[in-house]
Specification:
two-stranded antiparallel sheet, 356 residues
Length: 356
């Protein structure tokens, strides 16, 4: 790794023009040109440096892999490394941000000082990528590569979040009756035979009686489209009298994204998804995803998204990319499971560097 890093730095940082592919680039090249000038290592090589076997991850092409949560079970008794957090500062004239600082620090520690180090980063929103802010793979010689894959679809986690979020939104608008044992228990009904229910219990159990004006759950999409921020749904001929105002948010603003970043296991994910409140009944009682009977389906949609994605920096140091909740509406960190896995992989004396 160190030999590769030194040769790359000598090649790219030289103030004499460097030629490759028939194109002459000056030493102050654009981020994308710098990223594309380096042939990434195969992900299996990055995994091998972390002592990960082929049964610990699923490859997504040559340069990405999903690290399975079973790694935590196998390394349960091993020591954790040091945890380093790069916080935000007032922007500098040259625009160094948390991501580029985090990546640059890890490259210095791993590629040049030969420390065991893992970078943990959030996956950026495509709303930012196609907006004025741009991507979040770092910048200059401190980048995650392949930069285009990092910034775009990666391994499809955001698409899973979008699907799960919109499935719940559809359930809110279409489901009005339930038949769930969980709901019976929540309502304090101990009877097991339908004919034993009183009229009051039937009324409580059979209908969620959602108050449309209380619904807070909105649909999401992972692209910029401000004209969908406020819309009216229920205007079809089959939904007469069900028109209500709602709108679209960006996918990473979904509560499901925040839940993904906070979860610690698939069972924990299922429980957290089930507790999400989407609105109130007309009696003022909160209505959850469990009440709608879709929490299990949401979990199935998220079953692969719970695994962090292994990538690399320009200088071949490992990166775990997972989740991406906004800091202004959620906690603004990459996932807990990515941090926990990284701390076990670097072991005693190693370092995990993340941004917040």
């Amino acid at each position: 790794m160190v030999e590769r890093s030194l040769s790359m730095r000598e090649n790219l940082s030289s103030k004499t023009p460097v030629t490759w592919g028939g194109t002459v680039l000056k030493y102050q090249a654009a981020d994308i040109d710098i990223a594309n000038s380096v042939e990434p290592l195969h992900t299996s090589q990055i995994a091998q440096e972390l002592n990960l076997g082929t049964h610990h991850y699923d490859l997504y092409g040559k340069y990405k892999a999903k690290v399975l949560l079973s790694v935590l079970d196998e390394l349960h008794g091993s020591e954790d490394g040091y945890y380093v957090v790069v916080g935000g500062i007032t922007p500098t004239p040259l625009g160094e941000d948390k991501s580029s600082t985090t990546v640059g620090l890890c490259q210095a520690l791993g590629a040049f000082l030969d420390k065991k180090v893992v970078t943990c980063l959030r996956q950026p929103s495509k709303g930012l990528i196609f907006g004025i802010k741009g991507g979040a793979a770092g910048g200059g010689y401190s980048q995650v590569i392949p930069m285009d894959e990092f910034n775009l679809h990666l391994t499809g986690d955001r698409h899973a979040i979008t699907a799960a979020n919109n499935l719940l939104a559809a359930a809110i608008d279409t489901r009005s009756s339930m038949n769930l044992h969980k709901l019976i228990k929540k309502l304090g009904i101990s009877k097991t035979r339908p004919e034993e229910l009183t009229p009051q219990e039937i009324k409580k159990f059979a209908r969620l009686d959602i108050d449309p004006s209380s619904i807070t759950w909105r649909r999401v999409m992972d692209i910029n489209d401000r004209f969908l921020r406020k819309i009216a749904v229920g205007q079809g001929p089959e939904e007469k009298g069900m028109v209500r105002e709602t709108g679209f948010d960006i996918s990473v603003a979904s509560e499901i994204m925040a839940v993904l970043a906070l979860t610690t296991s698939l069972a924990d994910l299922r429980e957290r998804l089930g507790k999400m409140v989407v609105g109130n009944s007309k009696a003022g009682d909160p209505i959850t995803a469990d009440d709608l009977g879709v929490a299990g389906a949401l979990t199935v949609l998220m079953k692969d998204a719970i695994n962090p994605t292994l990538m690399q920096t320009l200088e071949g140091t490992p990166v775990l990319v997972h989740a991406g909740p906004f800091a202004n509406i959620a906690h603004g960190n990459s996932s807990i499971v990515a941090d926990k896995i990284a701390l076990k992989l670097v072991g005693s004396g190693g370092l995990v560097v993340t941004e917040a």
